[in-house]
Amino acid sequence: MTVAISITWPTIADALSLGGIYALMAVGIGLVFGVLRLVNFAYGQLIMAGAYALAYASTWGWPTWGGILFSFGVVVTLTMLMDRLVFRPLRTQSPAVMLVATFAVAFLMQSIAVLAFGQLGTIASSVGPLNQPWIIDGVAIRKIAIISIVVAAVCLTLLQVLLTRTSVGLHMRAAAMDFRTARILGVRANRVISGAVLISGLLAAVSAFMLTARNPQVTPIFALDDTIIVLAGVVLGGMYRPISATLGGFVIGFASGILGGVLPTNQSQYLPSFLFGAVILVLLVRPNGLFAPRGGAVERL
Predict the structure, then answer these.
(1) Is residue 103 predicted with pLDDT exceeding 80?
(2) pLDDT band for position 3 (50/70/90)?
(3) Domain of 230, in residue numbers
């Protein structure tokens, strides 16, 4: 039996949308890794918290913009609390200790969500209309697909300007390359690290809005699978450079969107196998990452 596979414009738009969201998540994870040498496994739970904030704001009758602001407030507050209560006290410890700490925070937040909201979760009805189509030249494309592409492009452009054209970005790169030397030279490293964590939280809030609009059903494991795929994309692109990590996130998101759109429903369970198998094959050829420069040079941020 032969299965015909065709790639339509709506599938491409959805794939670009998912690629943009994963790129934002990848750069959020990459910023914290670049400064703290820490892979934050609790990143998905921050997105989950923002999704719940959107969902409950809609049940309270808040307008969509009010729910978005509330979601941003929740995610940023949790991000800064995580930095103050976990990252900062453990900053001088080994990467393994900090890694275990992020695992603990992730499972703690997930357990709290189960106890507070139950296993079944809730629906963010206020963002549901964003899944309705826009008709563009006779092609029906979901509104959230177009919005996600535009928002991701704007956020990535602003972030690139921040890192390359401002003193804050210069201080972030200096702190990433050598924390102690940066402090000796007058860089307020603690403030720079907090700034990187804050930006990472803002990107998590943006991702929470766009992922919730794509899938309004919010559960305690919301965004968990997405975060695992993004982490694979960060490694695929190259962990030590934010541009490489961002491209890796976009590539794996775009590939996931295309494969999810063309695979028959009864074969969709094979999608993670295809993705992670491709990641392994790429890393066997390019261990430093697909977009990392050849040679031994490493640029953290």
Answers:
(1) yes
(2) very low
(3) 224-293
Alpha-carbon span 207 to 245, nearest angstrom: 16
Same domain, 216 and 245: no
Closest CA to 260 of 44, 12, 3, 20: 12
**Residue 246: which of 172, 167, 176, 160 has the closest Cα?**
160
145-179: burial string, b at 16+ Cβ within 10 Å, e else: bbbbbebbeebbeebeeebeeeeebebbbbbbeeb
As for how many domains the chain has, the answer is 2
Share of the chain above pLDDT 90, in %: 38
Task: Let me know: does 289 contact 235? Beta carbons within 8 Å.
Answer: yes
Same domain as 185, residue 289 = no
Flag whether 155 is in a domain. Answer: no
- Residue 297: its pLDDT value, please? 47
| One domain, residues 121 and 234 | no
pTM: 0.88
